[in-house]
Write a structure and sequence with these properties.
258 residues; alpha/beta; seven-stranded mixed sheet; 40% helix; (wild Malaysian banana) hypothetical protein; AB_hydrolase_lipase; hydrolase; hydrolase activity
Length: 258
């Protein structure tokens, strides 16, 4: 691994440790947590309905106690149609939430809206720990135990919970669209024979199952340096790429020559 990659990883870990100290200061923790809270009007009122679509919000509880938010666009702007509309579940990738499906864009540029306008019943997930799914039956996000999970839990708990909910709600097998980590969790579940009886088709966008052929310098550096374990040792459970630490780190990386 090149010296520059190691330098980036070390700088990242040190910055997270410094951030951890700042977050514990009076008032600072409250400010950080407030910055992650969704606006009061939510996705349906603020984003989907203004585009002319009906929008519904649901809460789904996983077997390990996480409470996930799902948003449903049951029909297109033209209203209902004869017969049942086939359900489609959209699962986002890592460091993202359901907004990744371009809900702020014009309808013709958003997969969710395009599907709804073409006769599908669209369901949008927001994975645990993301902006819209930060609740748990007994833990809050300030507790390190809240963050004690990996993609294994997403495949074992989150995906079965959301797929099962849509299946029961609609009474139909569903089409699955996953992006990046959304493909990894699906492949993990499908390879063990889970959920296949509830899935009609699966479209995997930028699929990933192994990291053997990863060529990104930062990705290889982070993996080789065991950055996840290092951050855990510092007591850092959450990395918010849109927060102060994430944006400062990216600005530092982009400012480096070469």
């Amino acid at each position: 691994m090149g010296f520059r990659c190691w330098l980036l990883v070390i700088t990242f870990v040190l910055s997270m440790g410094f951030h951890c100290e700042l977050a514990g200061a009076p008032g600072r923790r409250q400010l950080l947590l407030q910055s992650l809270e969704p606006p009061d009007d939510g996705v349906c009122t603020a984003v989907v309905s203004p585009q002319g679509y009906e929008c519904q919000e649901y809460e789904v509880k996983t077997q390990d106690g996480y409470i996930l938010t799902m948003h449903r666009i049951p029909q297109g702007r033209g209203g209902g149609s004869a017969g049942k509309r086939q359900p489609v579940l959209l699962q986002h990738g890592v460091l993202m939430d359901g907004m990744t499906w371009r809900l702020l864009n014009p309808p013709q540029q958003s997969l969710a809206f395009v599907l709804a306008d073409n006769g599908f019943d669209v369901w949008i997930t927001h994975g645990r720990g993301t902006r819209w799914s930060r609740r748990h039956e007994s833990l809050d996000t300030s507790n390190p135990a809240y963050w004690a999970w990996s993609w294994d839990e997403l495949a074992s708990f989150d995906l079965p919970a959301t797929v099962g909910f849509v299946f029961r709600k609609t009474g139909q097998k569903l089409h699955y669209v996953g992006h990046s980590m959304g493909t990894l969790t699906a492949l993990s579940a499908f390879s063990e024979g889970k959920l296949v009886d509830k899935i009609k088709s699966a479209a995997l966008l930028t699929p990933v199952a192994y990291l053997t052929y990863m060529t990104t310098p930062m990705g290889r550096a982070a993996g080789s340096a065991f950055s996840g374990e290092m951050l855990g040792a510092l007591g850092v459970g959450e990395f918010d790429p849109k927060g102060a630490v994430g944006t400062n780190y990216l600005e530092f990386v982009c400012a480096m020559p070469g």
